[in-house]
Structure formats: C-alpha cells, structure tokens
C-alpha cells in the first residue's frame, strides 16, 4: 500500500474510535476562551491551558479546520483564531512587518459578519454583537491580557448552566458544514481512493516535525514551478480528493502529536513516534484489535527508554524474547496475544524547510519485524557489554557522529540503518567506515562502537559477503590477523601502563589508527618499546608480571605468519576485527587481576 | 502478436516518481508503463507508430535507498523565452544555479531489472506510403540489438541510465530470491498509466497488481483505467 493509502486506512481506524476530527475540522492548540454575554461584552476570559508543567500547555480542541496562510493577506479561521485576528492586538515587540495592525482583525470581523448574517442562534448573535462593538483599545482591560497575546482564542457562550464553546453549537456546525460542502474544488480522480471527487488544491499542513516550520510543513506540495509537470498547477499535479487529503493529514498529525499516549505517570507522551537521526519516525499497526499493544511493542523496540523500573523489566522481557526469536507464541506480558500477521508501517520524515521528505517508508508484519530485530540484536552482541537493554538506534548513530552529537549524524545513514534493521539486509557500508573513522579520530573504543563493528562484520558473514565470522567474546583461537593484532595491541598498551602508569599520550593515542591500518609500519616499533617496558617492570621487582606479558605477546603473535608477521595493510573488514580483538583483549583480566578501566567507566555512564 | 517485442532493461538505480511524492521524490515499487514507453521510444519511434506496453516483468527484489541531490527551483518561463526570441537576445534568460538551489531528497530503487513486453500500433493519418509494420518491427529489433538509441534511455529520471538488450526466445529468469518471495503477488495501489496528451494532458491511473512478478498493463482506453 502506498503511504497515503495506509495513512487513510489509519485515519479510518481512528475515525471508528471517534478519536479524530471529521472533515472540515482539525485539532488545534487553544490557550484561552472568551466568554461572551448576550450583549456582546466579554464576560470573562478562561485560561484553558494545562498548568503544572514548566510552560503551560495549550488545550487541544477540535475546531473548524485551519488552513495555510501564505503571504501577507489576512485569512481568518472560523470562530477561533489568534489574538491579532480575534481582538486586533499584536505583540508590539514581535511586530516586524509594515502591515496595518488592524488588517487581520478587520478581515475577521468582515468575514464573520458575512458568514453569520443569517444566524438566529443566540450564541452567534452574541458573537455578532461582540464583533460590532469590540474596540481593540480595550484589550488591556481583559483578564490574562498579557499571556493571551499571540495565542489562539475561542469563544464561549452561556445559555443557562455552564458556558459552552461557540463552535460546538449546532447552528455554528450547520453553517460550517454548508461552507465546507460548497467550497469544493475541481473534480478529478483521487489517486489514493480511485474515486472521482473534488481535488484538494492545497493540502493541509503537517505539524510537529522538529526542524520544520512550526506553522506546519507540507507533505504533498508543489511550491516552486520546477516541481510541476504538464502545465498542472498545485494539487492538480497529484490529484488527491479533499477527503483523502484531510484523512491522511489528520492521521499523520495525530501520529506526530502527543495526544495518543499516556505514560506511566499519566503524562501525555509520543506513543507512535521516535526520532531516528534527523528523521522523525512514526509507526502504526493495522489490526482488528489490539493495534495499540503492537504499537507499544514497536515503540520499545525502536527506542527502549523506560519511564519506570517496572516498565524497564517489562521491556527487557519482551526484547529478550524478541532476541531469542520467540516473540509471539505466548500471550505477551500485557496478557494479550499479538497476531504476528499484524501489518506494520514505519514512515521516516525529515524536514526540508516548508516541505517534508520521506526518508524511508517500510511495510512489514509484526512477526517479520520481531524476527529482524532479533537478528539485529544478535548481530550486535558483544562481550562484555554495558547495557541492560539493547542499544537504541539513536545510540548506535551517535557513535558515528563527530563529538557524539546527534545533530552530526549523517542524515542518509540514519535512514539506511533503519531500513537495514527492518528489512534484515546488510547494514549500510558507511556504518562500519564512519565508526572506524570516529575511533581513529577520538581514540575511544567503547562497547557500543565495538558492537557496531562486530554487527557489520557478523551480518556480512551471515549473508555471505564476508569469508570469516567474528567472535562475540575473547577467542584465543581466532587466527584472523586483524583480530590477533588488535589483541596484541591491547597487550602492548597494558604493558606500557604496567611499566609507566598513566602517561599523557599512550601508545593508543599515538599509534592506534596507524597500527590498525598499516601494521607493518608500527608493530616492530611497538614491540621494541615493549621490551623497554618489560625491562622496567622486571627491575621494579615484578618479574612474574613481566613474564606473563612476554607469554601473552608470544601467544597473540603465534597465529601470525612466522617470517612476516605484520601485513602492510589491513582491509576495512580486518580493521574492524582489529577493533573487536582490541576490545576483547583490553576487557580481559590480566595477571594483576586488573580488569579494564574503560568498561567500568562506561557502565557508570550508562 | 506478430509485432510484439520484449526488451530486457536494467540499471543500478531507478526512480519512477509517484506524482504525490514528486517534490521530495519517492519512487513507485516497480517501473511504470509510461517509463517503459519512454525507453522503447528512445530506441525507436516514428510518428507513424504508437507503443503500447503490455506487461512488465520484475526480475529483481524491490530495494530502496535514499539520496539527496541539489537541483534548481525554477524553470525559465515560456514567456521570457518568447521575448528573447523576439528580441533576438538571450539577455535575462539565465538561471543561476547558485542562486536558486534546492536540495531535494529522493527515495529511489536500487539494482533493478525488468522485461518490458510491448507492441506498437500504426497511427491512422500519420502512415506514409513507406511505412509498414514489418519495417518498424525490423528497425526496432535491429536498433535494439546493436544498442542504438535516439537518446540514452533511462529508468525514470535522466541520471539513472538504462542498459537494454533485445530478448529473443525465452525471457530472462527472475532473481532466485524472488521465487519464494511473498512480494511476487501484491497490490501496488494506483499507478500512473500514462498521460492522455490528446485530452488536456490528463493523468490516467490504473490499479496495479503484481501477479507472480508480472504487472499486466491495461490499454489507455480500458474500462478499469481511471482519470
């Protein structure tokens, strides 16, 4: 199914649950409500925002749909808008354009007078009265005047009992429904549904993708003429019916918003969304029942970030089941049986100014996905490791980026990695090379980096692209020269530390990258240096330790060709094995009983 | 069909752009009939014939990859070209790439191969005394065998050149991993069939199904074609 088709399908599921606004309406963040008296006076201003968090969060209300307002023309929304439209006030500090400050308000008034000209509902009458008598100069008299500036405002009206929203009144809904029905565009075929109907000229905005414009970006748009074809304009380049456009946009906006999920502490959180590199990734399931449970599992698998200890234990059990490839035979920990045939969609979006681009779009089933994730976790396995839950995608990506900043992650890599994990194909080639580059650049070899390197090699071996496997934990019998030399390097480093203690620039800082790339140039030098270190250890009275190092060096070198032990160069894959061998040997206990320091510090970090 | 042909085409990458995802491009899963027609026309076309694509065989698993490219945001308008022609000067006709760059992401297909089965029809009113079906069929075969083309055929976009070979006898067999792939049978959704150039350049869509690795293409005037 195409992206839009499956989003429309998801909308229909939400529609069945009554969870999404109908055609002509959208969910908007509203901060304040003006309570009108029948006379048209403002009786009160109600703060609708949820308090308690650092910044009060606006309430999400279903109101007559918003639309994009390009340019400087004033286009009011129906029965709600921001204060410049509703009350004619703008934040003087933020005002930049030379636009008449009252232009928006006048448009709001004129349009509503026209729309409501025949309304006999008392609430709408009150609004008409308000619009006729309101004077923007009286704005400071309103309660919450300061906080209300530039926020979205709705109207309320009291007709006996508690005040109700004006836009919920049947009369208002009737007027709006007529308006929506009459604004039909050109007829055409809808390439989502295949039905003939009014074609959307401009598609609704998609909000909530970090990095895109806050007013929303377009998923389907033709904002420059180089993007159009065959003399078509705007939406006619890709005919989509207004209904389907509303449906996919609402579905996508819902997936991107926090409204769907409640975490362990009762706070709203993103239930269907994770960040993978620069791609904001949403996912949804298609199932008769319990699609939500399947989605929750997916969210754990993509980003295991538990909010409580109980949840962590639960996630661990689920992921361990996935890892051993036994995911859905039994009812899951939530007491439900998940159907492995449940269809799953994963859509990675990344912002490009006013547009959104599809980074990846993957379709799979829950069973398949679990199998692939299991493979991924098994490929990543390395001993010793410092994690209790398998590392999330973003943690892998962070290791490939300069300064460990997620902003520096290659945008193409993140999508390709997600694709490789979900489809079970080879990891992107750049994953191995970028990780090696980072290791060379900052000399840090932690468990995640070692795991990435091992995963690349192990998967390539499993799929026949590599001749040799790579061990999970220290394997003294492994004879690959890269692995052996990595081990040897770790031993030489330990010998240096035993002799000299912590030095400013140890052999790892100085020689790691050249040793892993061009062993023949570096190792003879290092071995000579090691003799000095061993001599120093002996002279300090630790002959046994020196002897142990001697043996360890001999043992590591035993597998190398006798005459010419050090190859001139190592291939990329063997450089990877060098890293794995180094990691394994470094973490192994030495004669002094000293275990590796780096692993210990990493555990603290995690 | 006596004048049917089969052409094996393949390439490293392909992008058969979906209309709704054509700005930040996303490819259809398989080659579209209009892209297939474009390849055939690149090899041999004359006003007297019209190519009709019958079937498209998918020979390799569908794999995607994403890339980014720099492109320009505008085109030079028809009006300014007309003005330049009138003024006999190209002044003001330039488009400076540096000032008008647009970085666009594309999700494209990787390592593709297809067999296009097609035939051509003679176009009434454009047939000259020298035109005959046999002649055009022979010309196409000869040209395809020798690798001749009017312009380099491509897989959806110009950057992704298509290699081609005339198929004589048995069709090339699909990649072995495809044979047990459940992907061989599936609904591909609505796909662009072609543009109806005679009627306001209207896009025509059809419901594409992959059956045993083959997409059967309806005729432009078939009842199931929409648009």
UniProtKB/TrEMBL annotation, chain A:
It comes from the Bacteria. The lineage of its organism: Bacteria, Pseudomonadati, Pseudomonadota, Alphaproteobacteria, Hyphomicrobiales. InterPro entries: CRISPR-assoc_prot_Csd1-typ. This is Type I-C CRISPR-associated protein Cas8c/Csd1.
Automatic annotation (TrEMBL), chain B:
GO terms for molecular function: endonuclease activity; hydrolase activity; RNA binding. InterPro entries: CRISPR-assoc_prot_Cas5, CRISPR-assoc_prot_Cas5_N, CRISPR-assoc_prot_Cas5d. This is pre-crRNA processing endonuclease. Keywords: Antiviral defense, Endonuclease, Hydrolase, Nuclease, RNA-binding. The keyword RNA-binding applies. It comes from the Bacteria. Pfam families: Cas_Cas5d (PF09704). GO terms for biological process: defense response to virus; maintenance of CRISPR repeat elements. It is an enzyme of class 3 (hydrolase). Belongs to the CRISPR-associated protein Cas5 family. Subtype I-C/Dvulg subfamily. CRISPR (clustered regularly interspaced short palindromic repeat) is an adaptive immune system that provides protection against mobile genetic elements (viruses, transposable elements and conjugative plasmids). CRISPR clusters contain spacers, sequences complementary to antecedent mobile elements, and target invading nucleic acids. CRISPR clusters are transcribed and processed into CRISPR RNA (crRNA). Its EC number is 3.1.-.-.
């Amino acid at each position: 199914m195409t992206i839009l088709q499956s989003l429309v399908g998801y909308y229909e599921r939400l529609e069945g649950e009554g969870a999404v606004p109908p055609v002509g309406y959208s969910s908007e963040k509203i901060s304040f409500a003006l309570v009108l008296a029948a006379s048209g006076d403002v009786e009160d201003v109600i703060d609708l925002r949820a308090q308690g968090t650092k910044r009060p969060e606006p309430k999400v209300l279903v109101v007559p749909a918003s639309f994009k307002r390009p340019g400087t023309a004033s286009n009011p929304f129906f029965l709600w808008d921001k204060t410049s439209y509703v009350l004619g006030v703008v934040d003087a500090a933020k005002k930049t354009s030379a636009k008449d400050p009252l232009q928006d308000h006048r448009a709001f008034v004129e349009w509503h007078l026209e729309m409501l000209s025949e309304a006999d509902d008392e609430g709408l009458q009150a609004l008409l009265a308000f619009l006729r008598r309101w004077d923007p100069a009286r704005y400071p008299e309103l309660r919450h005047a300061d906080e209300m500036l530039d926020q979205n405002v709705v109207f309320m009206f009291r007709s006996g009992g508690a005040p109700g929203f004006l836009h919920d009144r049947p009369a208002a809904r009737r007027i709006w429904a007529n308006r929506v029905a009459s604004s039909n565009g050109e007829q055409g075929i809808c390439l989502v549904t295949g039905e003939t109907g009014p074609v959307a000229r401009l598609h609704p905005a998609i909000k909530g993708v970090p990095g895109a414009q806050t007013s929303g970006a377009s998923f389907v748009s033709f904002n420059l003429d180089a993007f159009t074809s065959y003399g078509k304009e705007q939406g006619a380049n890709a005919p989509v019916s207004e209904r389907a456009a509303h449906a996919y946009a609402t579905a996508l906006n819902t997936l991107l918003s926090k409204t769907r999920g409640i975490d362990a502490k009762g706070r709203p959180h993103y239930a269907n969304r994770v960040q993978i590199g620069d791609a904001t990734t949403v996912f949804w399931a298609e199932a008769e029942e319990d699609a939500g449970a399947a989605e929750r599992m997916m969210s754990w698998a993509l980003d295991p970030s538990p909010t409580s200890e109980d949840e962590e234990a639960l996630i661990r059990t689920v992921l361990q089941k996935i890892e051993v490839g036994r995911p859905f035979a039994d009812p899951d920990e939530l007491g439900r049986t998940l159907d492995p045939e449940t269809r799953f969609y994963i859509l990675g979006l990344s912002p490009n100014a006013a547009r959104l681009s599809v980074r990846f779009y993957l379709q799979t089933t829950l069973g398949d996905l679990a199998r692939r994730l299991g493979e991924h976790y098994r490929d990543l396995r390395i001993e010793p490791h410092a994690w209790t839950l398998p590392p999330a995608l973003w943690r892998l990506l962070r290791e490939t980026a300069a300064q460990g900043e997620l902003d520096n992650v290659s945008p193409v890599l993140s999508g390709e990695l997600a694709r490789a994990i979900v489809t079970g194909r080879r990891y992107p080639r750049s994953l191995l090379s970028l990780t090696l580059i980072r290791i060379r650049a900052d000399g840090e070899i932690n468990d995640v980096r070692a795991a990435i390197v091992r995963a690349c090699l192990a998967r390539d071996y499993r799929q026949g692209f590599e001749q040799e496997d790579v061990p999970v934990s220290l394997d003294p019998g492994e004879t690959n020269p890269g692995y052996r030399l990595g081990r040897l390097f770790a031993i030489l480093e330990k010998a240096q530390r035993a002799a000299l203690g912590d030095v400013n620039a140890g052999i790892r800082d100085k020689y790691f990258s050249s040793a892993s790339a061009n062993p023949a140039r570096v190792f003879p030098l290092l071995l000579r240096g090691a003799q000095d270190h061993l001599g120093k250890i002996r002279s300090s009275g630790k002959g046994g330790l020196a002897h142990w190092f001697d043996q360890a060096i001999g043992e590591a070198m035993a597998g190398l060709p006798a005459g010419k032990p050090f190859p001139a160069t190592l291939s990329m894959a063997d450089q990877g094995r060098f890293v794995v061998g180094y990691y394994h040997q470094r973490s192994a206990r030495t004669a002094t009983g000293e275990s590796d320091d780096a692993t210990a510090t990493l555990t603290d970090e995690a | 069909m006596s004048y049917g042909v089969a052409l094996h085409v393949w390439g490293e990458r392909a992008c058969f752009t979906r209309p709704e995802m054509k700005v930040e491009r996303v490819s259809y899963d398989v080659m579209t009939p209009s892209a297939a027609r474009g390849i055939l026309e690149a090899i041999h076309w004359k006003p007297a014939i019209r190519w009709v694509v019958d079937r498209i065989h998918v020979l390799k698993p569908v794999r995607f990859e994403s890339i980014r490219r720099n492109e320009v945001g505008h085109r030079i308008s028809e009006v300014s070209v007309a003005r330049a022609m009138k003024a006999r000067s190209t002044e003001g006709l330039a488009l400076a790439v540096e000032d008008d760059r647009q970085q666009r992401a594309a999700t494209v297909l990787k390592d593709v191969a297809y067999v296009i089965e097609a035939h051509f029809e003679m176009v009434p009113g454009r047939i000259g005394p020298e035109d005959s079906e046999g002649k055009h069929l022979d010309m196409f075969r000869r040209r395809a065998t020798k690798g001749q083309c009017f312009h380099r055929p491509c897989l959806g976009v110009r950057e992704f050149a298509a290699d081609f070979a005339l198929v004589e006898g048995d069709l090339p067999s699909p990649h072995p991993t495809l044979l047990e792939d459940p992907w061989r049978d599936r609904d591909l959704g609505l796909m662009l069939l072609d543009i109806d150039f005679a009627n306001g350049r209207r896009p025509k869509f059809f419901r594409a199904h992959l059956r045993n690795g083959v997409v059967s293409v309806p005729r432009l005037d078939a009842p199931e074609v929409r648009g």
